[in-house]
């Protein structure tokens, strides 16, 4: 079945429908990872977005459900150059085609993903529609595309009730703004008792449980949409509890303490982004997924926090160390394994801040 990807600037790509045949409008973004497509599809940070994989062959090692970063996929749609319909891997238990169909996620294959990526790089991230309707009306569609926004997606992806992962070490409160599974796993395997809280949990409840440390997770969308959450993060900042924040959590902490964020032209999404630790001078290969970034200038001028990491490619902020506080934040994903474990030491740093395994 034919499918069409229509961009808000009027570009139309024609390909083959994969997955669900339903129509979808979404923000179109690209990811430069060569592998890890299942982790991408199940990362809650992609809620409200349709993902184009820049690597041309996707699906050749199939689907292994153990690799999911959450219980379900969150992407709005999936865009690939060539879909491997017959996977070959001893861990594979499913195909992408069936996985997308089962979860009612539309997609398109057979388009020139290099051309699409170049458009997004030159013009910036934009909205688009995937449809199988060959009689589509471009004049009627374009206003709808321009009007689309992702909205408050954190509330859509967060857990609905508190969950506890038992452990004999420090008690960690994990704020679930759209947390990837491996964040909790990375803490749990270091012995931590991890309590996962819904995103809108009041700070008083979290602090009332007397955690040894607080983890602010990754998540989707514009951080400035999270107005009520930012107020609660400020209360957590005012406590003396050690805090480690990743991705959206890093942005929310900056906003809570008087900093600013802004939308990037096309963001960082992939498993090959170099970041420099400004303390040691070492460079790490990181996994990233964000369209917004912290403007560190105000926090630095007010001596609230100082840049701790910087992106080697474009110089944008990748992490902050907060003055007089046991708080550090990073924009990238140390729980992911692109390096493969270049930056997992940050979890050990967090353990040290909490007093290690007591």
Automatic annotation (TrEMBL):
<feature type="binding site">
    <location>
        <position position="289"/>
    </location>
    <ligand>
        <name>L-glutamine</name>
    </ligand>
</feature>
<dbReference type="InterPro" id="IPR036480">
    <property type="entry name" value="CarbP_synth_ssu_N_sf"/>
</dbReference>
<keyword id="KW-0547">Nucleotide-binding</keyword>
<feature type="binding site">
    <location>
        <position position="292"/>
    </location>
    <ligand>
        <name>L-glutamine</name>
    </ligand>
</feature>
<comment type="subunit">
    <text>Composed of two chains; the small (or glutamine) chain promotes the hydrolysis of glutamine to ammonia, which is used by the large (or ammonia) chain to synthesize carbamoyl phosphate. Tetramer of heterodimers (alpha,beta)4.</text>
</comment>
<feature type="region of interest" description="CPSase">
    <location>
        <begin position="1"/>
        <end position="170"/>
    </location>
</feature>
<dbReference type="InterPro" id="IPR029062">
    <property type="entry name" value="Class_I_gatase-like"/>
</dbReference>
<dbReference type="InterPro" id="IPR017926">
    <property type="entry name" value="GATASE"/>
</dbReference>
<dbReference type="InterPro" id="IPR035686">
    <property type="entry name" value="CPSase_GATase1"/>
</dbReference>
<feature type="binding site">
    <location>
        <position position="221"/>
    </location>
    <ligand>
        <name>L-glutamine</name>
    </ligand>
</feature>
<dbReference type="InterPro" id="IPR002474">
    <property type="entry name" value="CarbamoylP_synth_ssu_N"/>
</dbReference>
<feature type="binding site">
    <location>
        <position position="248"/>
    </location>
    <ligand>
        <name>L-glutamine</name>
    </ligand>
</feature>
<protein>
    <recommendedName>
        <fullName>Carbamoyl phosphate synthase small chain</fullName>
        <ecNumber>6.3.5.5</ecNumber>
    </recommendedName>
</protein>
<comment type="function">
    <text>Small subunit of the glutamine-dependent carbamoyl phosphate synthetase (CPSase). CPSase catalyzes the formation of carbamoyl phosphate from the ammonia moiety of glutamine, carbonate, and phosphate donated by ATP, constituting the first step of 2 biosynthetic pathways, one leading to arginine and/or urea and the other to pyrimidine nucleotides. The small subunit (glutamine amidotransferase) binds and cleaves glutamine to supply the large subunit with the substrate ammonia.</text>
</comment>
<feature type="domain" description="Carbamoyl-phosphate synthase small subunit N-terminal">
    <location>
        <begin position="1"/>
        <end position="131"/>
    </location>
</feature>
<feature type="binding site">
    <location>
        <position position="219"/>
    </location>
    <ligand>
        <name>L-glutamine</name>
    </ligand>
</feature>
<feature type="active site">
    <location>
        <position position="333"/>
    </location>
</feature>
<keyword id="KW-0028">Amino-acid biosynthesis</keyword>
<feature type="binding site">
    <location>
        <position position="251"/>
    </location>
    <ligand>
        <name>L-glutamine</name>
    </ligand>
</feature>
<feature type="binding site">
    <location>
        <position position="45"/>
    </location>
    <ligand>
        <name>L-glutamine</name>
    </ligand>
</feature>
<keyword id="KW-0067">ATP-binding</keyword>
<comment type="pathway">
    <text>Amino-acid biosynthesis; L-arginine biosynthesis; carbamoyl phosphate from bicarbonate: step 1/1.</text>
</comment>
<comment type="similarity">
    <text>Belongs to the CarA family.</text>
</comment>
<dbReference type="Pfam" id="PF00117">
    <property type="entry name" value="GATase"/>
</dbReference>
<dbReference type="InterPro" id="IPR050472">
    <property type="entry name" value="Anth_synth/Amidotransfase"/>
</dbReference>
<dbReference type="Pfam" id="PF00988">
    <property type="entry name" value="CPSase_sm_chain"/>
</dbReference>
<feature type="active site">
    <location>
        <position position="335"/>
    </location>
</feature>
<dbReference type="InterPro" id="IPR006274">
    <property type="entry name" value="CarbamoylP_synth_ssu"/>
</dbReference>
<keyword id="KW-0055">Arginine biosynthesis</keyword>
<keyword id="KW-0665">Pyrimidine biosynthesis</keyword>
<feature type="binding site">
    <location>
        <position position="291"/>
    </location>
    <ligand>
        <name>L-glutamine</name>
    </ligand>
</feature>
<keyword id="KW-0315">Glutamine amidotransferase</keyword>
<feature type="active site" description="Nucleophile">
    <location>
        <position position="247"/>
    </location>
</feature>
<comment type="pathway">
    <text>Pyrimidine metabolism; UMP biosynthesis via de novo pathway; (S)-dihydroorotate from bicarbonate: step 1/3.</text>
</comment>
<keyword id="KW-0436">Ligase</keyword>
